[in-house]
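re: ur msg from earlier - yeah i can do the 2'-deoxycytidine-5'-monophosphate complex, just paste it... oh wait u already did. ok heres what im feeding in:
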Amino acid sequence: MFVRRESPGSDFAPIVRVPPKSDNPSGAGDSPASEAPLCSRTVSDMIVTVDGPGGTGKSTVSRVVAAKSGLPHLDTGAYYRAATLAALEAEVDPSDGHAVRDVVSRSTFAQEGGRMYLDGREVSVGIRSDRVTAAVSAVSAHPEVREALVQLQRAWVDEHGGGVVEGRDIGSVVFPDATIKVFLDASPEERARRRSMETGEPLDEVLADLGRRDHIDSTRAASPLTIPDGAVMIDTSELSFEEVVESLLALIRAKS
Ligand code: DC
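and the outut:
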């Protein structure tokens, strides 16, 4: 349902305060001052994976859980979107895996402070364009592209000392030994309703597009969207945003 309710007031003891890096002007891993967690104990290598289809609230939930727990947040979908943007800008056919992989290996990708950078240029808005959204499923289906981007994602988590990592294959392929694995799901109608409210697009179009992307993401040969072994499955259809966040925080608390 994801109706915003008054925050129930958290008794959550944040897990780790990630210090701002001196060479990181964007303050990656920093939470807003109002949410700045105090260090209760150091769990520097905790990895929380959040997988699931689009429209489950995965991104917002992951971001808020990361801020409240003091863990850094990584959106891996942004890497696939940035790779797609790079391919489109290079006028490479998104269905040509080798050509896209070549473009990816000539490009640099970075994610800091919730922003995505391609070759040092911020592309946070550009990667959400309709053109990129239409081609990203084709790009993310190529094993050679996935291999390159997974390496970057693992390096990011290594460098940042753990994190809340969201995507489609995070608990199954990228971090199969993660501390906590979560799979968020919701009915297609509910996911489409949320997305349509967010973007203002007609509900039937959003439903058809989600169905098309779900089908490609879950039937592709390379790292299809699946519920990872050992994942806690949360159906968010009937839950409020705060209830979903609290479920994840409870899992983190139990492991710290
Ligand atoms: O979460 P998103 O809509 O921004 O993801 C964009 C695309 O990237 C989507 O088609 C699924 C794909 N993706 C993926 O294949 N593996 C991931 N770990 C993350 C996203």
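cool cool. Residues 54, 76-77, 80-81, 136-137, 140, 167-170, 213, 217 surround 2'-deoxycytidine-5'-monophosphate (CB under 6 Å). ping me if u need the other ligands too
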